[in-house]
Amino acid sequence: xxxxxxxAWGGKGKGLGPGGSMEESDPHPVLSPSISSLSPLQVDxxxxxxxxxxxxxxxxxxxxxxxxxxxxxxxxxxxxxxxxIFQKHHVDYPRTVVPNPSSYCNTMMKRRGLYWTPVNTFIxxxxxxxxxxxxxxxxxxxxxxxxRAFITVTICRYNPWIxxxxxxxxxxxxxxxxxxxxxxxxKE
Length: 188
Fold this sequence. Notes:
By secondary structure, this protein is α+β, with helices and mostly antiparallel strands. A hairpin with a 4-residue loop joins strand 6 and strand 7. The strands form 3 sheets. It has a 4-stranded antiparallel β-sheet with strand order 4-5-8-9. A 3-stranded antiparallel β-sheet has the order 3-6-7. A two-stranded antiparallel sheet has the order 1-2. It has 2 domains: about 50 residues, no CATH class; about 110 residues, CATH 3.10.130.10. It is built from 4 helices and 9 strands; from the N terminus they run αββααβαββββββ. The protein is about 30% helix and about 25% strand. It is found in: Secreted. This is dTDP-glucose 4,6-dehydratase. One of its GO terms (molecular function) is nucleic acid binding. Its main location: secreted. InterPro entries: RNaseA, RNaseA-like_dom_sf, RNaseA_domain.
């Protein structure tokens, strides 16, 4: 009985033939008299290649477009955006007039949207002078550039116990990271 079921459902092997004898069954039996021999339901996965993928592959197009976009952005367009962020976080020229360094830090950190940042330094030098450090600064082993001259800065440190910043106004050499000759990182 198992051989008859297998033969009826397309299984290979011996089954009961028309006279009840055991003979080789047809590997492609007719499933129903209403299904023609050209019916798409009769597919042999071994010999029929109608389901094999061929032709253009549009699913590969999107990753290629994304790769091209990433390469275009990496070619120098994003360094301008990073430089704008650097300037927002670290450049205050001319220096904002506030009575003392601590009130300066509290004012500037709120104004620049940096409140709660543990440590931040504001540089009080023209942006072009800061940019020139990328070209003329002393290279360091960590890949940063150090200014040759002393630069006036205000260092702001957050004190969580009093929920306020304390500021220190100093003159020192600064170290920055550059990308395409623009500063994008400040080493605290």
